[in-house]
Design brief:
The complex is a heterodimer. By secondary structure, chain A is an alpha+beta fold. In chain A, 52% of the residues lie in helices and 17% in strands. Chain B is an alpha/beta fold. Chain B has helices spanning 6-11, 20-23, 74-82, 104-114, 130-141, 147-160, 176-188, 206-219, 233-236; strands spanning 30-41, 48-59, 63-67, 89-94, 97-98, 115-118, 194-198, 225-230, 241-246, 249-255, 258-259. In chain B, helix 5 (130-141) runs parallel beside helix 7 (176-188) and helix 7 runs parallel beside helix 8 (206-219). Chain B has one domain: P-loop containing nucleotide triphosphate hydrolases (Rossmann fold, 3-Layer(aba) Sandwich). The chains are: A alpha+beta, B alpha/beta. The interface between A and B is large, with 40 and 39 residues.
Amino acid sequence: MQFVSHLWREVRRAPARILTSVFALSLAVGAIGVFAIPTVAASSLRDSAERDAIPQIVLRTTDTADVDLDTAVSSIANVEHIEPQVLTVVATPEDRELDILGTNLTNQQIDIIGVDAGRLPTAFGELIVAEDTLRLGTTWTVDAADGAPIELRVVGIGGTTFWNGEGVAFTDRATAGALEGVDGANRLVVRTSDTGKEALRSTASEIRDVLSDGGVSTKTLPLTIPNGRHPIEADIEQISSLIGLLGIVAGLVGLVLLGSTANTLITERTREVAVMRALGGTNRAMRRRLRRLAMGIALASVVVGVPLGVLISNLIARLVLEEFVGLTPGVAVSIPVMIGSALFALVGARLVAANAARRVTNRPLAAALRDRDGSPFGRRLSERLVARFATGSILDRTAVRNGVHRRARSVAMLAQITAAVAALMIIASLATTVTDYNAALDEPVRWATSTYVPGPGLDIDASLADGDPRAEVGSTIEGEVEGWEIGVYGFVPDTQMIDRTMDAGRWFEAPGEVAVSSGFAERVGLDIGDEVTVEIASGSHQYTVVGLHPDRDRTVFIDVDELADDMNLPGMGNVVMSLDDEPPAFLSGPIDVERLAEDDDDNGTAAILLIFTAIGAVVVSVAGLAVASGLAVSVYERRHEFAALQAIGGRRRHVFRVVVAELIPIAAGGIALGLVAGYLGAAAIMESFEAANAVEIGFTFASGAIPAAGAVVVAGALLIGGLMVRRVTSRPVAVVLRGAA
Amino acid sequence: MALISHESSVTSPLSAPQAPGFTKPHAVRPLVSAHDVSRQWGKGSNAQLGVDRVDLNIGSGELAAIVGPSGSGKSTLGALIAGIDRPTSGSLVVDGERIDQLSTDQLARWRGRNVGIVFQDFHLLPTLSAAENVELAITLSGRSVGRSKRRAETREALSSVGLADKVRRLPNELSGGEQQRVAIARAVVNRPRLIVADEPTGSLDQAAGSTVFELLAGLRRDGTTVVFITHDRALAAEADRRIEMLDGSVSRHSAGGVDVRIPLTADTLVAGVQ
């Protein structure tokens, strides 16, 4: 109770300063809460993954018609259950593509479908569709694989965690089989007893082998989902780490603000404490009393900041999950992050306050009683030296000397401006880099449209484009090199669909030769002449690297015919690239046309940028508040000096001039250091991102934002400085000077 | 001509109390004229009255002492006369200017040109040397003075208070008496018509205090009006005019040993013997 009343007295003494500190530190503590995003997201994802019995292994295969799957996998100890499914594509009444998954709906054991409205299909042709895909009751007729018409009818709305965010429909296997022309299954989902990463890889390999023995080949690399994790968790962790770094910056800025506020509030009690010491108060008791203030501010910040952090982390997690997974998560908290952010504020406050309190109580009693405004100017060598320089106007001189005299305040403001500018530049640079990277991904591309036919395999005859000088058949499949997921792109050797200018070496010409993205090659230690093992759906294949291509993704470029051979599908491809804006006329049936001008990842990029901007706004706000508060305190501390200046004829503009003159070198230094820190910080973040993804993302420093950052700092400083000068100069000089006595 | 006849004032500061302006007090126009001046802080039940309906005139070239016990309102009255505070009611004319009607900046400009203020706590700018503190007053006065002339005037002012050899010292490197002499040099360097000194000797030992008082008292020889606030009755006894304050009001007002009738009604010195 005594602690609370003591704090209340302190708040009444300097309400603006203390509330600003509480607010900024609360934001900082809240910003640190972003570290909870992976936990919050994972909590929802894993809950739903467990509820829906998400598969651990997914394989896309050719028709398993003649294979008894249960018998085939019975020798594989790790397999708990294998579910045959059929995946097909139909056109909707609005002529959109719709994936339809045929599965066992009577005894669901894997990837269990949740029903939001209507019911599960019970009859041939009935569908349950993902939300926002088709309306309940929609009925239309499509052609089956054998040409017979099948009436499809939507009887339910629902979905599974695995398929969240995808426009997909679920039906029984018979319906999907008829649509696809598959007697058995073309997709296998597996639950295992050991869900470890290596166990899953080995089990997937064993399944692939037994399927191969039965004449069934896999069309894509097996998808493995270890440890009950949702596939998107790794991406969320990566984004969260990035945001968390910004949170740390916010936290540090908040602590600097707390430090400078606590320092001011404690230092200005030097005399008061000295009187109490003179009356018999011990240094220990005085320090405890002084520390209480900072601890109170920190405690209040924790009370506000921790729930704020929970709110921020949940909001961002929701944004991410809704955008990328189509899942609305429940509210979750991360106890370690909550405790960590609270400790960060409390321990930080304790440390900065202890330092200031020690300085106040260590001051010789006589000096503390005598010197009202702390140590007088001229005691230190640096002060005497700067006093010898009589350059500039007298007002400028007093500004410069004051900056040296109150160096702790100057350094704090320098740090705060540095942090604000750095945060601004990091955010701007990340945004610029992401935008440039997305643009750079398409730089080597020369095709205007790429057209796919449904299905995961190589279903287009490579000779289809023969004779069309503006089109080529190629292949794009998933692969793996040294544990990294890669894209394997098949082109004709003299392709005109991609810029073949190389960073080093040459484009492939002979069998067994490949070109590799140079950034990826550098990160996995591949060079020209090296052998590279590429894992694709059909197994492992070895190639020789003959060139490093400037492509910014993780890509292996190979002869389309060789890739078809290696996939055991000679003469086939899966994409038709065209230099024209419309797909070639020779393509018929359901096709999926992608136009280069249409960036289907725009929404994802926008979401990431939105998250960066949101958390960046918090960081910049904390830093801005810190700068504003530091500046306000700096002006307020010197109100007696300014009143003396006014008493001898100084007008408001003279006081403002002194404030600005003092601020200019600090702001200039802060901007310069902030730019350097922003550059290094953003470059380091992108470097870590590159290392984590084994790609060459590149780094674009947002130099265009420099004038804006400078203008924001200067305008903000002038505004706050002007307001504070107005405030301190509007009081009668005599009243202010009386307060000094 | 030196700003202050330092040597003479130090050697015989109190030997010539009859300053030129004092011989015919009734004939001079007042430099300071306060009519019904009040200064109040706060409102309602929290209201505090610092100065309550004060009327007074102080003549040009006079050495006027405002005396009274602590809390009597003498410093508040001094601040009002110096223009570093503003009356809440009444009119205050100094050297023909209604200073109670000036804006904050106009008042500051007026102070820079017309008033020199000496505080008990000196209020020198701690980061400026003695010379710079004095030179700053010239800069802020708005007088169009070249750099060399400004420095010459600064040197002259500091010399006149006996600090020619300490011009580059920081306030921290000066004694209390020396700091107060720098403050006096700063106050007189623009040759103002009015000097207001609030307890100028309050923080000083007796010797330093005497020196400071002598310097101030000597200023009236050049026709400068000096208003000093003090609780030292011995010093107040040396003044041409003595204004005694009690509870915010003028309890006694005497000039040349003759009581002045309160309130005053004219803008000239009208002395009435009670």
